[in-house]
Amino acid sequence: MKRAHLAAIAALAAFVLPSASALASPPKLTGVVGPGFTITLTQGGKKVKTLKAGTYTFVISDKSGMHSFGLDGPNGWSKDFTTVPFVGTKTFTVALKKGKYKYYCQPHESFMFGNFTVT
């Protein structure tokens, strides 16, 4: 009787509890703009060049009131993470689809930008 009871509890737990992969948080991307005329996007300390399509957590650190951090993607997709004169850190969860992306500082876009591709 105990064995059947334990099997029923285990089956119920497997049905009710989320899997380990469902509990995993999205990969983290770190964006930094300023305090000088620099802008970066990294994952694990390495410059982002290519990502797989999926959901990511963007942690954006804006270190100057004269900069911003924006992201443009395929089919006119656009997201302003920070705007002038914000200084501080913001966190966003974003689903990235296949295509080419550009991150940039809006007031200085001609020279403060980077690109990556989502496959």
Provide a descriptive summary of the structure in words:
By secondary structure, the chain is an alpha+beta fold. The chain is 16% helix and 45% strand. The protein is built from two helices and ten strands; from the N terminus they run ααββββββββββ. It has helices spanning 2-16, 20-23; strands at 28-33, 39-43, 46-47, 50-51, 54-62, 69-72, 78-82, 88-96, 99-104, 113-118. The strands form two sheets. The chain has a five-stranded mixed sheet, with no helix packed on it.
Q: Mind telling me the C-alpha Rg?
A: 20 Å
Strand fraction equals over 45%
Tell me the total number of β-strands.
Answer: 10
In whole angstroms, how far apart are the ends? 53 Å
Tell me the strand order in the biggest sheet: 3-2-1-5-8
Provide the low-confidence segments as ranges.
none
- Biggest sheet layout: 5 strands, mixed
Q: Tell the overall outline.
A: globular
Helix and strand succession?
HHEEEEEEEEEE
Overall mean pLDDT stands at: 89
Number of helical elements: 2
What structural category arises from helix and sheet content? alpha+beta
As a percent range, the share of helical residues equals 10-25%
